[in-house]
Amino acid sequence: MSKRELKKQLEMLDKKKLISLISDLYDKNKSVKEYLDYFANPNEKETLEIYKTKVREAFYPKCGFGFKLANGKKAISDFRKLNPSSKSLVDLLMCYVESGVEFTNDYGDINEGFYSSIESVYHNAMKLIDKNGLHNNYKIRAHNILNETKNIGWGFHDTLSDSYYDIYD
């Protein structure tokens, strides 16, 4: 069914049926629940903290050992779907990068795929900073990341530096 067809079907429902449908979706689908919770109570600061915790847990799980980059990327993707402010999104992206850098410094050299993921997120953060004029908000934080990567291999520091110096002189 196309979105257009769906809209036609929904327009034919009365208010009571729509409320029932949305309530069922809320109960049965976790992502719908999160979206509607945010829609009803858009506390971006609180929601950002929840997603930062999810990102941190991708690197430092509560139980066991081992990182799961996919979980961190999913948290970013899910947060992005809520349509947060650019500043909050950059904050979450930076949290991902900082967590990855910290993990590397704690446990040593990882692998190329790990670093490529961190580099990609850092690059996306730098593009959002530049596009939205958030330079002053993140300059020190972005530079601190560079300082923490000086001794990491795989050309990691150089790649992050390129992204940094593309927007900061």
Helix count equals 9
Q: What is the total number of structural domains?
A: 2
Average pLDDT works out at: 94
Which range does the strand content fall in?
under 5%
Structural class: mainly alpha
Polypeptide structure, described:
The chain has two domains: 41 residues, no CATH class; 125 residues. Helices cover 78% and strands 0% of the residues. The chain starts with a helix and ends with a helix. It is built from nine helices and no strands. The protein is elongated, with a radius of gyration of 19 Å. With 169 residues, the protein is mainly alpha-helical. Helix 6 runs parallel beside helix 8.
Defining key terms:
169 residues; mainly alpha; 2 domains; 9 helices; 0% strand; elongated
Short note summarizing the structure:
With 169 residues, this protein is an all-alpha fold.
Helix and strand arrangement:
Layout: H1 3-11, H2 15-28, H3 30-40, H4 44-59, H5 69-81, H6 86-107, H7 112-131, H8 135-148, H9 156-167
Helix pairs in contact: 2-3, 4-5, 4-6, 5-6, 6-7, 6-8, 7-9, 8-9
